[in-house]
Design the sequence.
């Protein structure tokens, strides 16, 4: 559980090697590869930032469609609320990745990394269920014949969110997290 390193302690009082608990990430010398850093950068810019920008846009579109077409039998009722729930849930998830898990990975990992990875993967399964509901609410991301431009834009935005979230989770589960689980 503890290992000795050849690094001297930062204080003048210590003599000999420092004992470091294995629960903390290794030193940056044992850090992540360039490929892992690049993948995390991709996830942060292509997915985290994109979700933060696009969910509010989709929510606004859904609120507009629900208000304007409230009397229409095909209106995607409660879609805005579902998207808002998804956005809140996703923001919390992404914050934990950015503040806890990604720094652990960039530090080279630790024996305890399996726990936050397991938690993130379990939350990915929750997102899969949320996406099933999203597809049901949007009738598989399709607008009825004669739908207005806003409604068509909404279903296209929901389709993109669905595709992006699937690819985002695949990259994390199968590429970024997998080496720490073997």
Sequence:
């Amino acid at each position: 559980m503890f290992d000795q390193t050849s690094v001297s302690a930062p204080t003048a009082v210590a003599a000999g090697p420092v004992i470091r608990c294995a629960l903390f990430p290794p030193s940056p010398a044992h850090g992540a590869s360039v490929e892992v850093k690049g993948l995390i950068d991709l996830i942060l810019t292509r997915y985290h930032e994109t979700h933060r920008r696009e969910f509010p846009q989709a929510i606004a579109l859904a609120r507009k469609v629900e208000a304007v077409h409230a009397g229409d039998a095909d209106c995607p009722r409660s879609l805005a609320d579902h998207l808002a729930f998804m956005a809140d849930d996703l923001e919390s998830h992404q914050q934990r990745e950015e503040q806890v898990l990604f720094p652990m990975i960039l530090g080279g990992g630790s024996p305890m990394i399996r726990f936050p990875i397991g938690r993130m993967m379990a939350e990915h399964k929750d997102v899969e269920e949320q996406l099933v509901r999203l597809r049901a609410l949007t009738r598989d991301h399709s607008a009825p014949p004669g739908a207005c431009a806003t409604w068509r834009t909404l279903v296209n935005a929901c389709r993109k969110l669905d595709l992006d979230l699937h690819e985002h989770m695949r990259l994390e589960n199968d590429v970024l997290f997998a080496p720490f689980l073997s």
User: Anything to note?
Assistant: Residues 1-30 have pLDDT under 50 and may be disordered. The first helix runs from residue 34 to 68. The two ends are 19 Å apart (CA to CA).
